[in-house]
Protein: Peroxisome biogenesis protein 22
Organism: Selaginella moellendorffii
Amino acid sequence: MANEVLEELAQIFRAASKKMSALVSFLMHHKDASSIGAIAGFAIALVCTWRYMRSSNPVRRPKPTVKVEAPSSSSSDSTSGSSTAIESRGSQARQRGVAIQEAPLSKLTLAQSVKRQLKGGRKVTCQLLGVVLQENSTADLENHAVVRPAAADVLLELAQCCDLYLMSRVNDDASEEAILAALDQIGLFSKANFNRNKVLFCSSEAGRCSFVRQLEPDWHIDTSVDIVNQLARYIHHELLISPAPLGSMPSNVLETNTLESYFDCR
């Protein structure tokens, strides 16, 4: 389309040139001011037309060719070598990740294991009878009180990493003294710097349940199914210590056979 327009303009320019020649020869015989002005105006028109034609059809210069050289074998080798090194490092990282996923618990300390099992909980209430102590009833406390050796280390870690409260049902003051002496013997008050006032005593199961309700812990550990069920609406996590799984427990109640079997998962 543009070429056709340019061709037409060229024809007009040639025709105008012929007429211009005739007009110039005519005006040369009739020299006056008006004829000279006409010649000048016509000449200007021709110049403008010629410039427009040149601008409409600019000369296209050839684009410089860029020579692309193939990469040398040395650069190719270095590139492949770096990619191989990256893949090797990625493979090593994946292998380390797999190793961590396969056996993470074996690398935990007891303190890390206890914190892991608390799931972010900070306040814990725990029954002593049948959980920390070898004795399971108040009648057994009349003769002696002994901390279970397997539970001793876990108890010390709980005392140091969270706000721990221990509670037990007793029949008399002598039983209280026996329990305090047993806890002192494993270093609870010296090594863990545990406050003696956080060892609470009561005379009934209802009293222990009331203690827990008032303290509002994140975790409660107990052996009584009745108390665990009563507290399930109020406590976020509960751990039921039972020799055998009972089933049909609230969703926030976990079952285990001993204290250490839950917290010491190394």
About this structure: The chain has a mean pLDDT of 78.
